[in-house]
Amino acid sequence: MSATAPRAARAATGGLPGETGAADTAVAPRADCVADRAGGITFTVTGPGGTGPARLLLRLRGGERETGLPLTPDGAGRLRGVLPAGAELAEGRWDVHLQRADGAARRLVAGLQDLRALVDRVPADSRAPVAVRLPYTTKYGNLTVRSWLRAPHAEAGELRVGARELGVRGRVYGTSLTPDAYVEAADRAGVAPAARTGLDADGDVFRCAVPLGSPAPGIRDLWLRPAGEAGPRVRIARLLDDVADKKHIFAYPKVTLGTAHGAVLAGPYYTADNDLSIVVVAAG
């Protein structure tokens, strides 16, 4: 049994912890976004309140951090602001607000999102940290920016689900692959020992075949050890595209395996953070 590509569909991202309250889309200000390959985002705000002094406010969900961006009139009755590619934005979900000089910050409704530049993006500098900023629409129609900052980073590419193993092709950024490199499947519950899988390397590109079987049902998170046991432990993830939440959009087949615990179903999936894992559940 083999799958060379996920069954993917573009859809609005569902609700996530920290996202509360439906936006009143009839009266709330709205922001269109254009993302560029370097990691910058241009916001264009329309809606009630005119074009007086205002700023864009990004608040880290679940934390106390925020980033403000100046907004300036664009001459067409709208306000425009830019999140520069070089601006520091911690990993997480940043809810986007409009704050006028004479009022409290107000959540922005998501408008059009031009993410074409992010499709199959390849960072220009393979040794630099990987920074991804991806605007998306929440369950309630609000605008949020999902940010990742990984150094080093292991980008998952093609996945192939075989009869008993998962084939993974990927590329490493921010470090180099050594002859001691391997892939580690770690039991998320910390009960079973981590399983090692060797890999083939061609420059920064690696290929491996991770066994799908497991001593017991559970979740195994996949990590790259580019320098072996003594080096960094790098989570394998898929970040360099235009899909903010792959967990419910990229679906892969599961295979049936016989184990000491009985028949199980096993297959890959992406977590809520777009990290790559293998789930093993009892069949039936």
Automatic annotation (TrEMBL):
**Amino acid composition bias (Low complexity), ranges on this chain:** 1-13
* Ranges for region Disordered: 1-23
Please give the name of this protein.
Transferase
